[in-house]
TrEMBL record:
This is MFS transporter. NCBIfam families: yjdL_sub1_fam (TIGR00924). One of its GO terms (cellular component) is plasma membrane. CDD domains: MFS_DtpA_like. It comes from the Bacteria. It comes from Amycolatopsis vastitatis. The lineage of its organism: Bacteria, Bacillati, Actinomycetota, Actinomycetes, Pseudonocardiales. InterPro entries: Dipep/tripep_permease, MFS_trans_sf, MFS_Transporters, POT_fam, PTR2_symporter_CS.
Length: 485
């Protein structure tokens, strides 16, 4: 019996393979470190030096945060390619986790912009590699048709949200009581714990997790390595010469991801390997790609505009104690833990009567725009005067919008994918998130606490407008989808 078969028949973790506990743990600690760091990163960048920060202009600081998030999702595409062609998912995940820990240590120990540069690059590339491969390895733990699979993924995603909930709470306390670098240090410790338990449990994952599905021929490895080295050298040169700098980083990432996305679509649509039906389905994905990018350009402002709003406009006083800025980042994971099963059960109960995928995209985009309009009643209320309950309500709308669109995006990309381009279509879904996340930083450059109404109303209404246009196009899109619901 192969080790993969043994793994798939294992029931030692609450009826599931023991490897699931290992992946649950590494993903929980990675999300702990990622969201813990992200909860304090924006204010670290724009707080004055005497407050322990770097003193950057707020618009540059928020642009960097958005660009960083865009790079994480862009790196997920790279991580998937490395696993498919070079190392396999298991080894790619391990090296990605090591890189994340190095990044957090750099943020904790290296002073100034050097720590930010080294730390964020390492964490972005590592998180992207881990994100794209942890989910794939969970899938290898179950045989085809295993009824435990959906429950296994539910347990795994509980780890994601548990880490996302606890991380900002602890790093926020560390930042307010001691300083930013202890907060970053806690993120490093969390990732070290995740890496340690993962290392001890690697043997529980089986041979299938180590397979390289589509190995790169030996003759192509040297050119691929050379191209990667040249790309890294070019990026370093652009940074050192100041062509790419904190002020324009968000623009650079937005343009880079946009060009890569267009190139991906063109490669697939012009390929001779796809049928007329498959080409039609790829075309149907374009309006959903745009809607997804618009959605995430608002949703990911939790870590740009909403972070600045929490710092400067939210009344964070609780019984005479001021809540850390990062704690607001823990609200969304709680709502996801509570409402994701409810919405999943609702879609299951509705069966064929549930909204079509394009309609779910409409709901997600419109609700996301509406969430930004909910900031308008609090405009002009004064410094740190907006009630925290209002923010909780707004983030509840964020969550419901997310649950309408985000989970179905990945599923849709696999349903519409041509047989010859399955991985690339999943990559396109990640690229829509990458583009939107980078845009969340670019848009944040136009936000000002002194003149909020134009920002919130414009961004909210544009998103609602995109949702309405998508709604009007549903009959045409569903025709292009050729039977995919």
């Amino acid at each position: 019996m192969s080790t993969s078969t043994e793994v798939q028949q294992d029931t030692r973790f609450f009826g599931h393979p023991r490897g699931l506990a290992n992946l649950f743990g590494v993903e929980m600690w990675e999300r702990f470190s990622y969201y813990g760091m992200l909860g304090i990163l924006p204010i670290y960048l724009y707080y004055k030096v005497e407050q322990g920060g770097l003193g950057l202009a707020q618009e540059s600081a928020l642009g960097i945060v958005g660009a960083y998030g865009g790079l994480v999702y862009l790196s997920a595409v790279v991580g998937a390619w490395v696993a498919d062609r070079l190392l396999g998912s298991e080894r790619t995940l391990f090296y990605s986790a090591v890189l994340i820990m190095i990044g957090h240590v750099s943020l904790a120990l290296l002073p100034g912009l050097a720590g930010i540069g080294v730390g964020l690059v390492c964490v972005a590339v590592g998180s992207g590699g881990l994100k794209s491969n942890a989910t794939a390895i969970v899938g290898t733990l179950y045989a085809e048709g295993d009824e435990r699979r959906d429950a296994g993924f539910t347990i795994f995603y509980m780890g994601v949200n548990l880490g996302g909930f606890v991380g900002p709470l602890l790093t926020g306390i560390a930042q307010t009581e001691v300083g930013f670098h202890l907060g970053f240090g806690l993120a490093a410790i969390g990732m070290a714990l995740g890496l340690t338990q993962y290392t001890f449990g690697r043997k529980n994952l089986g041979d299938k997790a180590k397979e390289v599905p589509n190995p790169l021929p030996a003759s192509q490895r040297a050119p691929a390595l050379g191209a990667a080295v040249l790309l890294v050298a070019a990026i370093v040169a652009l940074v050192l010469t100041g062509v790419v700098n904190p002020g324009n980083l968000a623009d650079v990432v937005v343009w880079a991801v946009g060009v890569i996305s267009v190139a991906y679509f063109l490669v697939i649509l012009t390929s001779g390997k796809i049928t007329a039906v498959e080409r039609s389905r790829v075309l149907s994905f374009i309006p959903m790609f745009i809607a997804s990018a618009v959605f995430f350009s608002l949703y990911q402002q939790q870590f740009t505009v909403v972070a600045a709003y929490t710092d400067q406009r939210l009344n964070r006083s609780l019984f005479g104690w001021e809540m850390p800025v990062s704690w607001v980042s823990s609200i969304n994971p709680v709502f996801i833990i509570v409402f994701a099963p409810i919405l999943a059960a609702l879609w299951t109960k509705l069966g064929e009567r549930q909204p079509s995928t394009p309609m779910k995209f409409v709901l997600g985009t419109v609700l996301m725009g509406a969430a930004f309009l909910l900031f308008l009643p609090m405009v002009g209320s004064g410094k740190n005067a907006s009630p925290i309950l209002a923010m909780v309500g707004i983030l509840f709308v964020f969550t419901i919008a997310e649950l309408c669109l985000s989970p179905v995006g990945l599923s849709l990309s696999t349903k519409l994918a041509p047989a010859a381009f399955r991985t690339q279509m999943v990559a396109l879904n990640f690229l829509s998130i990458s583009f939107g996340t980078a845009m969340s930083g670019k848009l944040a450059e136009y936000y000002s606490v002194d003149d909020e109404a134009p920002y919130f109303s414009t961004v909210g209404l544009v998103a609602i407008g995109v949702g309405v246009l998508l709604f009007l196009g549903i009959p045409f899109i569903r025709k292009l989808m050729k039977g995919v619901h």
